[in-house]
Amino acid sequence: MALDLASLFSRKKPPLIGLDISSFDIKLVELSEGSDKAFRLERYASEPLPKGAVLDGNIENIEQVSDTIRKLLKKSGTSAKNAALAMPAAAVITKKIFLPATLSDQALEVQVESEASQYIPFAMDEVSLDFCVIGPAANKEDVEVMLAASRKEKIEDRVAVAQAAGLQAKVMDVESYAARAAMQRLIEMQPNQGQDQICAIFQIGAKRTYIYIILNGDVIYEREQQFGGGQLTQDIVRNYGLSQEEAEVKKKTGDLPDSYEMELLEPFLENAALEVTRAIQFFFTSTPYTRVDQIFLTGGCAVVAGLVDIVAERTKISTAVISPFKGMELASGVNEKTLRSDAPAYAVACGLALRRFN
Predict the structure, then answer these.
(1) Range of the domain at 268
(2) Number of domains in the chain
(3) Is residue 5 part of a domain?
(4) SS3 of 123, please?
(5) What residues are paired with 123 via a beta bridge?
(6) Distance (Å, rounded) from C-alpha 218 to C-alpha 269?
(7) In the chain, what is the straight-line distance between the N-terminal and C-terminal CA atoms, in Å?
(8) Does residue 59 sit in the same domain as residue 126?
(9) Which CDD domains match (predicted)?
(10) d(Cα 256, Cα 268) in Å, to the nearest integer?
(11) Residues facing 202 on adjacent strands
């Protein structure tokens, strides 16, 4: 499926919203150009999904998901009609390949498709394929190319829910790549633009944690672990008879019975710290690197009380919860206090919204 990207490169850069479709909710972010080349957060919002509408990244009920998007558009107040969406990393095959730098654009496209057939375990007519030239290879005679492929049906489902909600899907990204784009902007805001600093980003979602470790703009390690904040939410639901939405809110605020901290929160934090520590050790044992300078926590689980402290204590590494909107101007309708607790969950949606400026 070919997406019309032409409008994204016009001078006026028409409004584009980032839509992050997860198993539990849909998040929206819209950015604009602020002063002095800064970004401006125009609006952000989320809307819970009916149970079972999305399972493990697969859209099971197009009508329910598109209806949720319509509610979200109304809630946010956006008038944008263009959207950037993303596929779960598990649904996308990515591969870096090297091709001769002398190839024309047309020849490069043919060669990419030929190379892709070696790595994709499906018939080529069943997949949507795209690629991006990253830059010159070390030998200068080749270029490094990133190719990405996913089953057409999965992409078409996401396009369908956007269209049913009155939107045009202009960009289809990968969730982990979108989050990474949002985080890279923040790393570049570090002293000396983060040069020579090894930064480990833990994007803790509901069911999975994506880990990517970045050095000087390059991803030197990435991994996915089956761990997420959804486990704590489900424990709260079961123990206190709350709805999923109520449990998510109270998990953030800590407005729960006195037994919560000892019975549910502390075991969860210990497990989370263990997962982070294991991931760092895997990084050390499977790469030539022996240090991590900074850990950034993002994702909806990052703001759980006590998580940042226990991770810093167990790993002995500087750890911070990070907002993808750091350094951005805020529109008058954005509540700064609420944003502080909400922001870490919006890394994917923010990265998608940034595609407006590519």
Answers:
(1) 16-90+153-231+261-355
(2) 2
(3) no
(4) coil
(5) none
(6) 30
(7) 21
(8) no
(9) ASKHA_NBD_PilM
(10) 15
(11) 211, 297
